[in-house]
Amino acid sequence: MGLHYDFIIVGSGVSGGRIAGELAEAGANCLLLEAGKDFRAQTFPGTEIDTTAQMFWGGGIELNSDASIGMLRGKCLGGTSVINQALLDRFDEIAFSDWRDRSGVAFLSLEKTTPFYDELEKKVAIQSIEERYRNKNAQFFKKGFDLMGLHASPLRRAQTDCKFDHGSDCIACLGGCPRNSKQSSLVTSIIPALQKGLALMAECEVQNISSNNDQVEITAIQNQKQIKLTAHQCILAGGSFGNTKILFQSGLKQKSPALGTGFSCHPQLMSFGIYDEPIDAHKGPLQSYKSDDLTLRRAGYKFENVAAPPIGTSMLLPGWGLEHLQLMKKYRYLASIEVCTRDEPNGTISVGRSGKIKIHKPLTTQDHRKIKEGQNIIHEIFIKTGAKKVIISEQTFGLHLMGGCTIGVDAKKSVVNPEFELHEMKNVYCADSSIFPSAPGINPSFTIMALSLKLTKNLLRGKA
Amino acid sequence: MIYKLNSLQSKGLNKLGDVMIPGDQDLPRFSTQGYEHQAYRVLDYLPTQDAQGLMLLLGVLGLLPSFLIVCLVFMIEKMSRIRGMLGAPFRVLWIGLKGLIMTLYYSGAPLDVIGFKPFVYTGDVISPHSSQHP
After folding, report:
1. Chain B residue at shortest CA distance from A327
2. The pLDDT of residue B129 is above 80
3. A348 strand-pairing partners
4. Residues in CB range of A195: below 8 A, 6 or more apart
5. Per-residue model confidence (pLDDT) at position B125
6. Helices A110-123 & A445-461, crossing angle to 10 degrees?
7. Smallest CA–CA separation between A325 and chain B, in Å?
8. Residues A103, A408 contacting (CB under 8 angstroms)
9. What is the spatial distance between Cα A105 and Cα A435, in angstroms, rounded to a whole number?
10. Residues with pLDDT less than 70, chain A
11. Which residues of B touch A356 (CB under 8 A)?
């Protein structure tokens, strides 16, 4: 005997958590499904080794088919919003106009999205790091930008009451914030919604989904047992990989040829500058500044000051043996900056016979050019600010996984229609990063939240 | 799945670890830290196929003399730089082997030496939320 709900939300990250919270707040009978564990502030693993292993898909990392890009995505209640840096940026018209051109969806505009951004800013605490708390890594970033004649501005971070004056270090919150200062979907939406009756099944992985005009049927595995669930409507919020995998396993590819196409991931690379004085990039606020320069925006890349904990740093620093050990001993003397490129949406996602996701994501000549140009600028920033040596990491990461179920008016070229409903599956909706028509070149979380809020309002009005 | 290294695999892990992290006057050699007893913290959460592949490889490394492991590591690292599908298996190997060693090593005592002591003030946090749910 299965269980029946008004809404079942699959995935609890930036989109799913927000949608579940809004629907539960409105009194709907909702079930939230999450493949990862139900960690809370008191139970986050705490150490880098355990966080990486237990809170990320693939035990830490997933690789594309030629193993040139490592993809990172959260596997826990609250999804990636629990383990990221909670950066909330509004998109600009450069991103939206590209989306409209590709999708034909008129509401994808800054003007139409602004009311949702405004509403979210009343629901989620957003702060920039005060000057007195910015660490030396951030100060060197700003100084370097000033010396280069480039414009940088403070990052907008979803956080509150971090207690920097008591010595808090954001790097510890990469494995979940133990004081719930980070405004993850776990903190802002899910926990309040659970208190209002939201049902939750964690460590529950959806296998497939089917739909008729009346209801949606979901088959999932929890504790090695198959369970059947039904709902009037289902919202897929498992991200590019999660949603695409479920829909492949549900046989949608035959009906919806665009499924799994249009994947992009904002390829990112970190570079390190070694200084004579301690930088302590890991102390205090981890990230304070971003590039905010139209020349760089048009060139297709952006920069942020950033730091990685020791295991991450050891993997980013090239080589092995004594030379590598000497570099690691300089950990406190490393400044680091990442370049994040606006890549072409040329990737594809599919599912192999074993059920494993296959990611084909070659970097184009344009992508390589952007990375190279970005790395050259970072090199110059480090040298101008007094670095004795610059190390360019060769490891590319994808932290923003987008596309695979793109939105559009044409059912042959997209998977989700302008009402956020799948073209070929009634009563199944999607508003997370998997619907992105292309890479915006801007941190995606805030716009995922805005699109999710729009979908929620549609659902509650019964218009969707 | 709970993975426990046998003696050959433990030997392989420590030989590989000492090649990648030989230690110096400040930082200890990999094999002195007993990481063979901590490997489950990584292996248990990897996809089954990846974990079993790594276990097999560690067993093979346990049989090889250290100088051959040096050659192997040197070769895998060089080959991993080849772009495209040709370099793919070497990149997978490199990320797997370097990942296992670095993850274990920089989870322990060396953190104090390199100066990584992250802190979050929780003095004012009183068990903020219940873990209970329906």
Report:
1. B114
2. no
3. A360
4. none
5. 84
6. 90
7. 7
8. yes
9. 12
10. 1-2, 463-464
11. 47
